[in-house]
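User: structure tokens for this one?
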Amino acid sequence: MSRFFSSRFSELEAYTPGEQPQNRQYVKLNTNESPFSPPKAAVRRAAEAAGSMQLYCDPEGEQLHQMLAEHFGVDRRSVLATNGSDEILNYAFMAFCDEENPAIFPDITYGFYQVFAQVNRIPYRQIPLKEDLSVDISDYMKNEATVFLANPNANTGIALALEDIEKILKANPDHVVVVDEAYVDFGAESAVKLVDRYDNLLVTQTFSKAWSMAGARLGVGIACRELMNDLNTIKYSTNPYNVNSMTQAAGIGALESIDEIRENCRQVAENREWTAERLKALGFAMTDSAANFLFARHPDMDGDTLYRELKEKGILVRHFDTERIRDYIRVTVGSRQQMEAMTETAAQVLGR
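Assistant:
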């Protein structure tokens, strides 16, 4: 750090993104990207929009917001598009947390929650998952704090039932509950249908996973109008032109291609179950994932060794050197060909 770096951030632990290797071709299963190309309509619309990039994008993003509202079945004023779902999550920390309203979230979840709390100087508490790595909803009842829950949970892939989300909402009427649905399209039930019934619910989603647009950086928040007014105040106080013209256009094209997106998600879910069965036959144990990844461990090899052995053979997965989960690897579910390569290589590494 330089001598000019603010002491406010002296203990900040920055988020570590997944590897994006440039020097070697891998079967890349480490960052939960889609194995499918973006919809042709998204690519075409983005290319057309690039022709006028000398102009500022529409800060209101009216056409995109109208289509998002129709897609989610909510009022136009209940949606907000952002630069990836990371931005809407950061807005939530800024808008709904402070010294009197700390943040709470699981100890094993999306790593950015802790970073957002630290960078915004917000007190927070991490609640341990149960022994089976699932969320105990009783831990989130009347904590006098803003609740952040990824559903399905990041890294584990385990999903809470909608009725459990509703119980948490009812138990925290005076605090916002943020439900981060980055992986919801692969097998979980969305809480968007509860937005009209609970004024303390914010649902966030992303176009990075199911929509094959990780590189475009498009996220969305869905909430009642009052919460959305709060989030728009943060947006227009920090980054009014937050979603560029090409990304807005790509989002419109993707929303025009919903049948293709749904079929892609169906194939990913099918490949997830196929891969899980193959890994179980090799002796792996894993969580019950409803996401586009598997969280698996093997009794004969620790997670770091498994990660490194697979990488050496051209299969790139994710390993987290965190005490409770260091025996696990996280494997993105890709195409059937990619999953065949991964499971065959895992068998070689294990000598099976």
